[in-house]
Each structure stands twice: as C-alpha cells, then as structure tokens.
Amino acid sequence: MIDLVNQINATHRELGTAGLSGGGAGRSLLLRRTYDAAVEDVWSACTTPERLARWLAPVSGDLRPGGHYQLEGNAGGSIQICVAPSLLRVTWSMGEGMATEVELRLAPSGDGTLLQLEHASPAEIVDEMVRQYGPGGTIGIGGGWDLALAGLLLHLSGAEYDPATWQDTAEAKAFAARSCAAWGAVVQAAWGTGDDDAAAAVAFATAHFS
C-alpha cells in the first residue's frame, strides 16, 4: 500500500514565469517528480482515454494535434503539441474562462520516468486571482495538480482507485492538507509573504479540498 502523505516530499514544486505560446507574460506552477515506471507506460497513462479515465477523468474529443479535448467535469481546450513519448502541451480552460496552458514533459530517469508538469497562466489572471483571494488561490491550483499526480501514482502502481470518489476520502483530504502546506512554503519563499499570510492562504486552499 502506498503511503501517499509521505509522497508529498517526492515532488519538487516551484513558482516562476513562463512565455505563453500566444505571446505575453505568464506565471507558472511547476511540479517535478519521478515515477517507478517506463516512459512509455507513463505516456500511455497520460494520453490514452481508457487509462486517463482510471486516474484523472473521462476525456472526449478529437484527440490529435490541432484537435480539442474535454475532461468530464473538468477543463477542456486544444491540443497544441503531442510528441510521443516526451511532450504534450494543451490549452486548459474551465468553462468560458481565459485559456491557460499545461505542458507535460517526460524523460527517462534511471529505471523510471522523470515527469515535469508546468501550468502557465496569463499574468493578468494570476494577479487578479491574488488580488481577490490572496495566494490561497495559487496554492489551491498547485494542490489540485498534486492530487492528480497522486492519482497517477496509484494508477501506475496498480492500486484500486476511482478518481470520482477518492478525493472525498480521509486519505485524500490528509494528502491535500499536506500538499497545500507544501505549496504555502513555496509561495512564501517566492512572494515574501509573512507567516500569517501564508497560514491564511494554506487554510483557504485546504478548505477548497475539504
């Protein structure tokens, strides 16, 4: 059985800047971790509809470069780049909101796979979110990706996992709280927030997943 809470330290997290494909300044969240699985297996899990449904969400659409996808109950967008088994870039939009971009990069690492996931948003989206909600909104986005990558770990490990119900379990909520705390430290270091501001942001983001 995987101790997911202890998996928090297996992920590197950082905030930075990014150049968006359409031009303009962007802000980004980056997650980096290694999986004990071959690159081809991780790529298949991240791009095959049948496998995506088992750890993230059912996906539909014209699943090819230039096509559009829709995750059930989640984001949708266009597929910008798909180079197996190393690079996938898509736009990522919730409803009618302005599109952000998600890039997935895979590379061999020893006997496993190094996964890097970068979520870049136009600077005005992030800045407005911070004005409205403080850094807690950014922490919540990072926490959401942590939960998704935990689901990928469960899937690759052969564990029984239902993404539609797992996030309501005590295990997932404990994981989300630890994730938000980890992102809180990243935000505090990057933006110079005080301890009280960081604690409030973590509480806000954790409540989003409870």
Write a concise synopsis of the structure shown:
With 210 residues, the chain is an alpha+beta fold.
Give keywords.
210 residues; alpha+beta; Alpha-D-Glucose-1,6-Bisphosphate, Chain A, domain 4; 8-stranded antiparallel sheet; 7 helices; globular
Describe the overall structure.
- The protein has 210 residues and is an alpha+beta fold.
- The protein has one domain (5-209): 2-Layer Sandwich (Alpha-D-Glucose-1,6-Bisphosphate, Chain A, domain 4).
- 42% of the residues lie in helices and 29% in strands.
- It has 7 helices and 8 strands; from the N terminus they run E-E-H-H-E-E-E-E-E-E-H-H-H-H-H.
- It has helices at 39-47, 49-55, 123-133, 136-156, 163-166, 170-191, 195-209, and strands spanning 12-19, 25-35, 59-61, 68-71, 76-83, 87-92, 100-109, 112-122.
- The protein has an 8-stranded antiparallel sheet.
- A hairpin with a 5-residue loop joins strand 1 and strand 2.
- Helix 4 (136-156) crosses helix 6, helix 4 (136-156) crosses helix 7 (195-209) and helix 6 (170-191) runs antiparallel to helix 7.
- The radius of gyration is 16 Å and the shape is globular.
- It starts with 11 loop residues before the first strand and ends with a helix.
- The model has no long low-confidence stretch (mean pLDDT 88).
- Belongs to the AHA1 family.
- This is Activator of HSP90 ATPase.
